[in-house]
Amino acid sequence: MRIDDESSGDVTDVAKVPTSADVAREAGVSQSTVSYVMSGKRPISSTTRRRVEEAIARLTYEPHAGARALAGHRTSTIAIVMPLRPTSSAQRLMTFVEEITLAARERDYDVLLVTADEGPAGLRRVVGRSLCDAVVVMEVGTTDERVTIAREVRAPVVVVGIPEDGDGVDCLDFDFAGAGRLLVEELADLGHRAVDVVGWDPDVVADGYNYVPRFTRGATSAAEDRGVELRWHLPADAPGLRTTLEQVCAPRPEPHGLLLVRAFPEVLRSLSEHGLRPGRDVDVVALASDTEAQAHDLTATATRPREVSRRVTARLFALIDGDAVPGRAAAETVPAELVRRGSTRRP
Amino acid sequence: MRIDDESSGDVTDVAKVPTSADVAREAGVSQSTVSYVMSGKRPISSTTRRRVEEAIARLTYEPHAGARALAGHRTSTIAIVMPLRPTSSAQRLMTFVEEITLAARERDYDVLLVTADEGPAGLRRVVGRSLCDAVVVMEVGTTDERVTIAREVRAPVVVVGIPEDGDGVDCLDFDFAGAGRLLVEELADLGHRAVDVVGWDPDVVADGYNYVPRFTRGATSAAEDRGVELRWHLPADAPGLRTTLEQVCAPRPEPHGLLLVRAFPEVLRSLSEHGLRPGRDVDVVALASDTEAQAHDLTATATRPREVSRRVTARLFALIDGDAVPGRAAAETVPAELVRRGSTRRP
DNA sequence: TTGTATGCGTTATCAC
DNA sequence: GTGATAACGCATACAA
């Protein structure tokens, strides 16, 4: 074994990446002291602290994440399991990811991305391999195997969505039922007795995302309460969509109400091509992001991804810190809010 | 130290996560054999292999990623540095992330997400801490400090975008100049001598993303070649946008050409409210994703995020495998293609 | 074809 | 307030 004295470097030394031992030598302290300076887990005299910090800066030392994880039993990483397809808008997903990542960075955590096409195995893998300390599962289905696994796994898991059997799992989501109710009530308030609803694509419905039936239930129950008839249309490619548009844009004797679960540009374009102007000839409400709703001037409820993300990360870090018991809290729901814009007449 | 015999477990043993040593004991082989079975880096007799694999299955063993990284000097992780805001569409970014993640998983790599708000430090951090083996930097600016750091850092970096000084860095992007050229030429072919262009928001321009000037150069040079006059409009909130819309929707004596750098719903809506129908009263071309273009029935060039991602990952893994020399290849560009839809008359 | 032994760079428990 | 030192779980050079 080669002796490690300070003058042993060859002339053509490759720039080795410095370790905490190098920092210790440079600062004239022990390696463990360097570790404690970084973690702050024990009192350090200000002079040693300064010398160590200067050595760190001189060598541009960075701790090895793997070694840390191995010795410290924590990775400082959280995993996000993404949904299979952009079922809600890509915008919404990006907002989630962005918000969670920023919150993580504030605590010096990193974010690992897992695609849902790995299925339940992905969840098992990232915690099994100790790739993360906690997991966020986005957009779970009504019955989702990953919810079961969330209970078995030895890391905290927060689930976005309200699955059928969510007992013992930390669930959290936007209140889609409340949104459905709010949108129908708005049209009812405007005097509509019948409402056309353009719902989700059949394949989105088939995926079993639980927010679809929740929204539907909210809308349906509000419709019953207010004596409104809901006529559901499912958009699809070419022919199916055309039929929907014809029905939705057909001339009516009475005022017409339209509820969109997304800001379908095709539908809005079709309306205007038929001479129907939102806010004048037809009242249109939608489930859409603020950005979309603004661009299309739609009265809408946004699904508030930022607020949901905030609560997700709060819950997650509470679990990580041991400030909360896993699966103990009831499913949490972020209330819906309606913003009126030009696509509806004023009540 | 406690002796590690097989009957030492207390009655109330917490389920310890198994290590390769546990697998070895269970299979009656040495720990190194387990390692070699998993890596395939040396020949193993079929009987041993079977016994080890069965033991792995019985114990549901998963290797500890940190320990692997420490001992193996590789993390099997690639990092993606995201842009600050969704400058191009969120859809486009999600597609990038999705495509890169899938390609990574095919090689048993994971993906770490880094937000650009960390700035150049983020790039330094993830490779300094050995959190990844390689990095993709999304949407670099015309002059971007991260490009400089990409050269210094000891891990392969592929950059999406064509920065001013990209020498010695692996750059790759969609051919925005070609797209600008293509779109202008299409309008020229339709007989337009003057074209209104609705460009990027001023704050996007201010961010210095280099695809903006590239697109502009392509469009401008095509306009000069074809004797077309380009009138640039920059959208903005409320008042600015209103002015733009008035100018763009003003009645004209001659046929009118319109080029959008995004599928601005506000602009399209405004057109139809002014009774101007794309493909009849005005020819509209756009830089927009297939999804958007289809929804709005726009003649458009897509920015092909999937194809760009494919080339990014190909390049990245070539660098990781040592099949390519870093910074050696010229900047690579994915050609633009135009798809005609209902928003333009047939030539 | 398999086993032994060492080191990877931290954290954390002792001792002083 | 600081310094040795034993894990942590795996990869791999060296033996057999």
TrEMBL record, chains A, B:
A Pfam family hit: LacI
Record's keyword terms, sorted: DNA-binding, Transcription, Transcription regulation
CDD domains membership: HTH_LacI
Domain of life per record: Bacteria
Keyword Transcription appears in the UniProt entry: yes
Record-linked PROSITE patterns: HTH_LACI_2
Presence of the UniProt keyword Transit peptide in the record: no
InterPro entries: HTH_LacI, LacI/GalR-like_sensor, Lambda_DNA-bd_dom_sf, Peripla_BP_I
Residue ranges constituting the HTH lacI-type domain according to the UniProt record: 18-72
Protein name: LacI family transcriptional regulator
Natural source organism: Isoptericola cucumis
